[in-house]
Amino acid sequence: MKKKIALLKGGASVEREVSLKSAENILKALDKDRYDTVEIELPKDKSDISWVHKLIECKPDFVLSALHGGRGENGAVQGLLQCLDLPYAGSRVLSCALCMNKHFAKKIMTSEHIPVPDGEFITLSDDVDMYEQKLDLLGYPIILKPNRGGSSIGITVADDFNAVKAAVTDIRERYEDDVIAEKYIDGKEVTCAVMQTENGLKVMSVLDINKSKGIYDYDAKYLSRESAVSFTTLPDYMRTMIEQIAVKAFKALNCCGYGCVDMLIKDEQIYVIEINTLPGMTDHSLIPQAVGETGLTLGEFLDKLIELGT
Ligand SMILES: Nc1ncnc2c1ncn2[C@@H]1O[C@H](COP(=O)(O)OP(=O)(O)O)[C@@H](O)[C@H]1O
Ligand SMILES: [Mg+2]
User: Which residue segment(s) compose the domain that 226 sits in?
Assistant: First the structure.
């Protein structure tokens, strides 16, 4: 008998369009002889919860999520799936919530001796002037990011304290968020795609991010026609270190299923910047490219997630 799969897509986050493309790609890859797939679109309007009724009525055997960012990735949708007792692919509530909160994710990684960039955490109620000396000690340039942001939105690189203050004000006004102020690592960027298998975690691939600007920004991630990623050209010993750190970070944040661990490398020192628990699945995205390196097709990769229930 065919399994019924609910495929969640859309949503209200800025990554809505990417999510729709991811869903298209997942739908194309799913084996039609094994699965009947029902697409469930989360509308732009957050108050419209008709999709929840559709999900309940559909009674799926398994849920795949093509959602990115916002409620789809911060544990909220995962919490709903837990309440409805529906098995789904990817990280659970706690890991999703932690990975969407850069400050807490860094705290946990630091406690597990996983290297992360040095920085300060400036909360919404903090007086920014209190950070002038600390940031001077950290040294410029400093990168400023919304704590719960994604897709490189709202990120600024500051060369002095005036620029820091302007960036903090901007993040507070536009995103009502706390700020991660971090040493800007002028290095190489890689991402490591990890998946769960019967025999534990497996690194699918290490991919180089080819940044034309100082950061891997929204345009490069989603709009550029040129693929911004390629299989890494780093030497084997670096690749081994990257893989070990990625698996350690994935475990530290209790992730499961699949995900991408983003890292920066400077002077052979590796820094984890974040883990994406629901990375893109478009034909340009990292995961489909990484899956290719394991010898699996995207369809076979999805079969494995469904079989393992993760
Ligand atoms: N400490 C840092 N030094 C240099 N570049 C950084 C640093 N942190 C982030 N970046 C750049 O900004 C991009 C987005 O940062 P990230 O922390 O991954 O946030 P997001 O959740 O928005 O993707 C990264 O892909 C990288 O190019
Ligand atoms: Mg990122």
Answer: 98-115+186-308
**261 alpha carbon to ligand 2 midpoint, in Å?**
9
The model's pLDDT over 33-79, given as tens digits with 9 standing for 90+, comes to 999 999 999 999 999 999 999 999 999 999 999 999 999 999 999 99
C-alpha R_g of the chain: 19
Ligand approaching nearest to the C-alpha of 15: 1
DSSP 177-204: --EEEEE---SEEEEEEEEEETTEEEEE
Q: What are the residue ranges of helices labelled H in the chain?
A: 16-29, 50-58, 70-73, 76-83, 93-99, 102-111, 132-138, 161-175, 218, 236-252, 286-293, 298-308
The phi and psi torsions of 72 (rounded to 5 degrees) equal -65, -25
Q: Are residues 106 and 222 in the same domain?
A: yes
Same domain assignment for residues 105 and 139 = no
Ligand 1 pocket check for 105: Cβ under 6 Å: no
pTM value surpassing 0.90: yes
List 195's β-bridge partners, or say none: 202, 258
Residues forming beta bridges with residue 272, ordered by sequence position:
263
- The DSSP call for residue 155 is -
Q: Is the CB of 222 inside a 6 Å radius of any atom of ligand 1?
A: no
